[in-house]
Structure prediction request, 375 residues.
Amino acid sequence: VPIAEDPSLDELAKDPHACWHRLRSQAPVVWVPALGGWVVLTYAAASAVLRDAVTFTVDDPRFSTGQLFGPSMLSTDGAEHERFRAAFAAEFRPTDIRQRFTTLIQDEVARLIAACGRPAEIRTELAGPLAVAVMGAVLGLSEEDPARLLGWYSAIVAGVDAISTGKAAGADAVSAHAALHNRLALSIEQNAAIVGTNGLSIDETVANAGILLFGGLETTEGMIALAVWHALRDPAVWRDLRADPSLVSAAVEESLRLEPAATRVDRYATVDTVVGGVTIPAGDLVIVSLAAANRDPAVFADPDQFDVRRPNAARNLALAAGPHYCLGAHLTRLQTRTVLEQLLIAWPEAALDERQTSEPYGLVFRKPDRVTVAW
Ligand code: HEM
Prediction:
């Protein structure tokens, strides 16, 4: 049994990559005592686990998001998962997303860039508010005070994080979830949301809409902050993007690959099984490290380098794969691309203020706390 010499949670939150490289060179899958689960480290094993929802399920009472939200597409598999996902899938197809949200996102990005301070802190002044505005529009919550929405949201994220590390969600998370539930139910009753005419009950709709919100804020905020951080961290990358803005999509994929804003997804083994030559007993927690798979040298040459011309960057698993592939993938990519495209035009001379910028941090959700841009 490959057992990791225990990396601490602190080490993993600070810089998981060196640790995952070390462990991946020993085995494709290792038991990490600090996480209480098997961590899947290679691209091949991660893809296989993500695509096999019969052997590796999310449908388990220990699942952190399920404990807070109740059954949703994120915490079910098989027919129930299909029913939930189908109720929302049409709204998130690439053409529908482009048609409904391109202008809204462009206008909101332009407005937020114009309102940024000098210097500008990208996460809190641009990425976070954009994600809230877009998800507000998706869910019919545009009228809601964004600060209130974010307050509920942060409490829920803290609760999910606590559950992921074996603690209780906490009273704040539970009451924030109740408040969000009531607000979403109201929006559905008033027919303001995209949701509500999809054949699900109100409770089912609210649970899934809550998951959309949960999936769409912190991660998008992180993804945008990370993309700007990557684009500016090496001035040569920014110069390349300025010279050829058609590279923006590739830069977004490369940023997703190097630092997926959601670093892992959790599954539970339904039977005794073998992954990458390692036997996993039924019932065990299986953590698919998207961060580790995305830097597997067997798939991505020179994996720690940001290479805007990497031919296969889009094969990254940052948005997962298989039946639970991120429903918001097109919407979140559109937001991130729009931010980079408009920054290149609005602030061509932008540069990172290193003293006021932090490295990415986080065990499950990962992003830099501050990405400060100056001229
Ligand atoms: C508009 C923004 C977003 C929305 C609305 C959204 C929504 C969702 C939803 C509803 C699911 C569950 C799909 C299912 O289980 O069938 C999902 C899955 C997922 N999303 Fe997103 N998401 C967004 C952005 C992001 C971002 C920025 C990331 C990371 C960079 C991300 C990473 C993931 C991952 C890894 C999964 C798979 C979860 C699993 O397999 O357990 N999402 N997303």
In short: Residues 94-115 form the longest helix (22 residues).
